[in-house]
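Our preliminary data section would be incomplete without showing what the modeling component actually yields. Below, a chain of 386 amino acids is followed by its predicted structure, encoded as tokens that our downstream tools consume directly.
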Amino acid sequence: PQQLGDRRFLEFHNVKYAYAAGAMAGGIASEALVIALGKAGFLASFGSAGLVPQRVEKAIVEIQQALPNGPYAFNLIHSPSEEALEQGAVELYLKHGVRTVEASAYMDLTPHIVRYRAAGLQLNSQGEIQAHNKVIAKISRSEVARKFLQPAPIKFLKALVEQGHITPLQAALAEKVPLADDITVEADSGGHTDNRSLVCLLPIILTLRDEIQQQYHYQHPVRVGAAGGIGTPEAALAAFMMGASYIVTGSVNHSCIEAGTSEHTKKLLAASGMADVVMAPCADMFEMGVKVQLLKQGSLFPMRAQKLYELYKTYEGIEQIPPEVRKSLEKQIFRKSLDTVWDETVAYFSQRDPEQIERASNNPKRKMALIFRWYLGLSSRWSTSG
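Predicted structure:
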């Protein structure tokens, strides 16, 4: 296994294998998972998406104590509906010296991912650019891959210099290196996915990488890895044979001993087959109609989540929903009154991101979205806690 993949990946991340474990949100890719894999010579990414800063900071301390020299990574997820979480994560990672992030679910670049990358750039004694803050970008679209394969946008760099987040030298260096060191091509996977076929998507991104390398002549070309549907040794070998520098697994790790989820969920996953998954609305990008791939067996979540999204599209606020429909929602899905759900939502975001409540105070549609996201967001936590 040590002979598979790109040797530069092994040296760059100080690992024994060109095989990483991707971040599963809500701490499912747990401290125990990251530490166990790290001690065995694998890179693993902690699933920090959806967790409050205090919980992420606790994980940073525990993982750094167990793996003082690595390898480990932390997830940095694009959060268009909760930008404060993305910004807070970057500030935590910079504060504690987290040197590798797995950037995922990005549809466009943000100043926060650019800040993380640029803040780690410096020149060594030979005058070479060193990137102390490493970025592994997980993508499934060529237009997003292009953004990470190219240097950071100048508009972001100028603003970050003006705000004092990076130095003028770091901004100048950021114009000469790609935003990411590695690009993980995520094909048909669990969670956020575009359901792309790996045999189609990987060659496209490899070709794009080569084109951009010819344009910028980077000293160190960006490596391209493969993820999505890699659940057997044969699938792993196929990805390497297609030219992947490294592979990333996710869902297959969900049912392992160290995963931060319940025994009930692990057993469901272990017994599931290809036909036991479905696409359903997700919590973090609910208003945009984004869907995630999840297990349908043993759960009513997919049907209920789709019902909530249809109501969101149909009505402009909770008050417009017909009384009989609202009563059905309260009885069958929420198991409590929507007024109570709103009170709990206010309490939740007051601790996490108060701006969410401010934006919903005079916007009935926004308020309805937050109420519906209460169910979507908590469902995955119920699965985790059992």
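The longest strand covers residues 134-139. The radius of gyration is 21 Å. Preliminary results of this kind motivate Aim 1 of the renewal.
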